[in-house]
Every structure is written in structure tokens, then in C-alpha cells.
Amino acid sequence: MRATTVRFGDELWKLLEREAHREGVSAAQFIRDATIMRVAYAMGQRGDGDFDRAISRSTGCESDGVRSHEGRSGAQQRDALQAALVATRDPERLKALQATGLLDSDATPSFDRHARLAAEVLNAPVALISLVDADRQFFKSCLGLPEPWASQRETPLSHSFCQHVVARREPLLIDDAREHEVLRDNLAIRDLGVAAYAGVPLIDSDGHALGTLCAIDSRPRHWTSHQVGLLTDLAASVVTEISLARAAR
Question: No. of H helices and E strands in the chain?
């Protein structure tokens, strides 16, 4: 095993020690886990052939019994990331997604109407129809999204809550992502101002979760069962639009 010395300023070290304590691990273990996840993410982004082995090491049990001492939330984050990576990179799912012809397509009024309705019925400032690709999420519709994301109409998966909806294949409701054990480090919180999130999977007739219909708020909030029911109904209608788009190709 190789060792290296990483130097931090006093204030940064205090912050690191505090977060490590909250997760129930040592500062060294906290740094190690963060490093493994960063390496695995970088490898996955460029399609490195050793990616699967790297991510399995990040979630596997080490010989020194380290995993038995991990904080619960740290383990949950790694497990959720691994599940999302497996789901988003599934070849059959990606084939079905490409077959829709919707990736990188222009804005379409029928899809924008569904996003607008989702924002209205949930009283949310942002609503998205997100198609989750292998390394990004493309927004077929993006009502209320700030710049530059609204013009780009996509983000990397480092900024994606929707990838977890694809992996779970069921609605994901977050009252305050900043306090969520799995999502609190997601870059969408910092860069897109995401606090509350409600996402429903878009599952095609062959059972592939292609993306989500989701609503986002910059303030913490509770999503009611009635709102989730309405979002689910709208998501079913979005799936119909996707089927029509695929048939029209």
C-alpha cells in the first residue's frame, strides 16, 4: 500500500474532521473514501475500461475491515451512486433511449405543456422532462431552469437527482436535499439551487426507465400525496408523447 501526505489549512482540516465525525469515520478514512469516489467518477466519465473494478472497490469490503466502521450515510451514498451508474449505463435502456430520437432534439410544445402543467399543479418554480443518458441528463423541456443550464438544456450526472429515479424506478421525493443522506453532496444543490425535488420515472412499454418528469423548488418543502399523484398522471402522459415521437421517426 502506498501512502502520501496531503496538506490542508487549519480551517479546512477542522471542517474535514467535523464532517468525518458526523459520518462516524476517521479523517483519514473520510479522505480515502472521497478520493476513491472522485477517481471512480472521473474514470466513468471518460469510459475507462477499469471503471467497474474501481467502483466495486469503492463499495467493497477492504482487508483491514474499514467498511465495518463506515458512517451509514457514506455507505448509502456509495451504494446509491453504484446503483445509478449500473442503471444509467444499461445497454438495453440506452438503446431504447436512443430509439426515441429525442436526445438533443429541439424544444417541442407538447412536452413543454406537460412541464408547465407539472409546475402549475405542484406550485413549483422549476419543472423538467429529463432524459437520462449514460453520462448526462438532457432536458426535453426545462421550465424555470436558471442559466446557463436553460440554454444548454443538459447537465452532467454530477448534477442529477433524476439518475436515482431511473435506478429506483419509482418516485423520489426530497423535502430538503441539503439534509438528505444520499443527495446532500450533489452539485445540483450548489449550482442549480435545488432544495426540494419530486421526480417520477418515465417508463416505456418495454419497461425501460428513460428519465423523469420532475418538479424542483429552491426552498425546502413537503410534497403531498395528492401532488405526487398528479405528477404521476402527467408522467404517464409524457410517456405517451415519447411513444408517439418514436413511432413518428
Answer: 10, 6
Strand-pair partners of 143: 127
Cβ contacts of residue 207 below 8 Å, gap of 6+? none
Distance (Å, whole) CA 31 – CA 16: 8
- Higher local confidence (pLDDT), 199 or 67: 199
Tell me the average pLDDT of the chain: 84
Which stretch of DSSP H or E encloses residue 202? Answer: strand 196-203
Which helix (H) or strand (E) segment is 214 a member of?
strand 209-217
What is the rounded average pLDDT of the residues 177-195?
94
Locate 20 and state its grid cell: 468525518
Q: pLDDT-based confidence at 43, cuts 50/70/90?
A: low
Q: Confirm or reject CATH 3.30.450.40 for domain 93-247, answering yes or no.
A: yes
1-17 burial by CB neighbour count: b if 16+ within 10 A, else e?
A: eeeeeeeeeeeeeeeee
Domain ranges of the chain: 10-70, 93-247
Q: What is the average per-residue pLDDT within 194-210?
A: 97
* Terminal-residue alpha carbon distance, the chain: 54
| Euclidean distance between CA atoms 227 and 27, whole angstroms | 42
Give the chain's largest Cα–Cα span.
61
Neighbouring residues of 117: CB distance < 8 A, sequence distance ≥ 6: 234
At 172, which helix (H) or strand (E)? strand 172-174
Is the preceding omega at residue 109 within 30 degrees of 0, hence cis?
no
Q: pTM (2 decimals)?
A: 0.72
Per the CB < 8 A criterion, the answer to whether 156 and 136 are in contact is yes
